[in-house]
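Subject: sequence -> structure tokens, single chain

Hey, anyone have a minute? Need the predicted structure for the following. Not urgent.
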Amino acid sequence: MGMGAAILTADRIPTEHEEQRELVRWFRQTWPGVRIFAIPNGGARSPATAGRLKAEGVSSGVPDLFIPAWGLWVEMKRTKGGSLSAEQKDWITYLESVRFCCIVGKGADDAKCKIQTFFNQQKDIL
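Reply:
Had a minute. Here:
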């Protein structure tokens, strides 16, 4: 096991990063021709880096993932303990008001289920 590998135990809740990584892997295997990409808004940064990124257009609260062909935004949370910030709620409200769809996945399995449901409901127009 590598130095950065996390040890999963029965009582350990996977991190949002681990959940998102699993979701992206699954999505790319399930729909290989459909692009999904991450929005790099999170993570600890120095004040100088944060300021530079904000000036470049990084905006707190933007959902984690986007599927352009489907107009679908995905916000990832942990299965337990993750909640939406005020900024995230504001972005989701805005995106839905301009006709995008947004889902919040409480872990990879929940997000997979919601994406599959979205696809099943929209497949005639996707």
